[in-house]
Amino acid sequence: MLVRALYTAILFITSPILLFGLYKSKPNKPKFGARWKEHFGFTPELTSDSKPLWIHAVSVGESIAAIPLIKELKARNPEQVIVVTTTTSTGAEQIEKLGELVEHRYMPIDFAFTVRGFLKAIQPEQMLIIETELWPNTLSTVQKAGIPITVVNARLSEKSCRNYQRIQPLFNLITPTLSKVLCQSKADAERFSQLGLSKEQLAVTGSIKFDIQVAPDKLQKGIELRDYIGVERPVWIAASTHSGEDEQLLEAHHDILKHQPEALLILVPRHPERFDAVFNLCQKSGFEVARRSQPSPDLSQYQIYLGDSMGEMLTLMKASDVCFMGGSLIGNKVGGHNVLEPVALGIPVITGPSYFNFKTIVEDLIRVEGIMVRNDSIQIAHSVNALFQMSSSELENATKSAHSIMEESAGALTRTLSYLDNT
Asked: Which residue from 132, 239, 254, 265 has the fewest beta carbons nearer than 10 Å?
């Protein structure tokens, strides 16, 4: 109890700072409006008489990962009411694209009274947490209400494991609240075990990110975008970039243009509040920049195409010849993003050296030469140019091995659903 009291006191003191960062107005960031009250447990009630399934996906990445699971759950049981919570407004924007498939609410902050307010309004029968979003007061309150908690697509990097070990007494409060933790890999399960979870609590189902199904409309839009760009024009995409990476990628593009003067870089910042800043950075770096949000009749005069839209990553990737996956060039701050999306589209993938969030996946791809790890702008430019010079048959051979890893690892969604059926 002392540990929980100390944690709650620290959270109470620091919550104004956390909430300021959450609510701070930023360009292209959706507003919370009057719904900010939901973070404090003032949650609108459901009209349904049946108890819903509650899925928590904290932000954009987890929301996107949850979508195939949500669609499959609804396909199996169309009458099942699903409530999805997110903490961020950008995550909410992704979930709201599902329309009537789900109800969206904002996640209450981690105080027992706010969570009790949420539970009273929603009355869920089960809670699913996407990946690893473990809040001690929330989990304890949910468990005390008799609601089973399952962590789906769980991952725990070595860095996160070490961080949790530093606060082991706090993690000890979390351990007994979890009914099941469905891990992406054996390594993830072993790290959870090191933190005190029992064998009975753990299972390895694989990553549901391997079960990527690209919607036909996204494929078609990607083909149409490529026709608009120019089929013969060399195109590479830098996806989900962060501050500190864009400069390096623009340097790489300067080098690429020396060898491929017609090359186009599709640059897609991870966070929408950075769209304008990255646009300005591109201009200051001497590039002609077109924006996805402001259609231009002709892209031939531009060297950069800024992907300043949401939910179109697969479309933009489909229009590209090569993909660099962001979040991987800025030390140990981010740890990379999902490299499987370009693999699913048959596009050669390059990543930076920091990919700890996808360590097992990237290492499997490295083993079959299905991905390139490059450390800086010079190496990235060299690899992109080399890939541009390959014939279509050579590119196809270069991506076959990566695609074989996806085929071997498919089925995580089915295994996950099998466990959920038995919960």
From this structure: 254
Q: Which residues pair with 54 in a beta bridge?
A: 83, 127
What's the domain range around 262?
216-409
State whether 178 and 221 are in the same domain. no
pLDDT at residue 423, as a whole number:
67
407 counts as catalytic: no
Asked if residue 232 and residue 109 are part of one domain, the reply reads no
Is 4 within a domain? no
Same structural domain, 192 and 243: no
Query: CA 218, CA 214: separation in Å to the nearest integer?
Result: 7
Give the residues of the chain that fall short of pLDDT 70: 28, 423
Q: Read off the CATH number of the domain in which 328 is found.
A: 3.40.50.2000
pTM over 0.90: no
Q: How far apart are CA 172 and CA 165, in angstroms?
A: 10
5 assigned to some structural domain: no
- pLDDT tens for each residue of 386-400: 999 988 788 887 788
286: left (phi over 0), alpha (psi -120 to 50) or beta: left
CB 203 within 8 A of CB 150: no
Count of CB atoms within 10 A of residue 408's CB?
Answer: 12
Residues 153 and 119 in one domain: yes
Is 193 strand, coil or helix? helix
pLDDT for residue 130: 94
Q: Which of 38, 62, 93, 312 is catalytic?
A: 62
Answer yes or no: do 242 and 276 share one domain. Answer: yes
Measured CA to CA in angstroms, residue 317 lies from 147, 288, 308, 339, 390 at distances of 40, 21, 14, 11, 18
180 beta partners: 150
Q: Which pLDDT value is given to residue 28?
A: 67
* Same domain, residue pair 26 and 154: yes
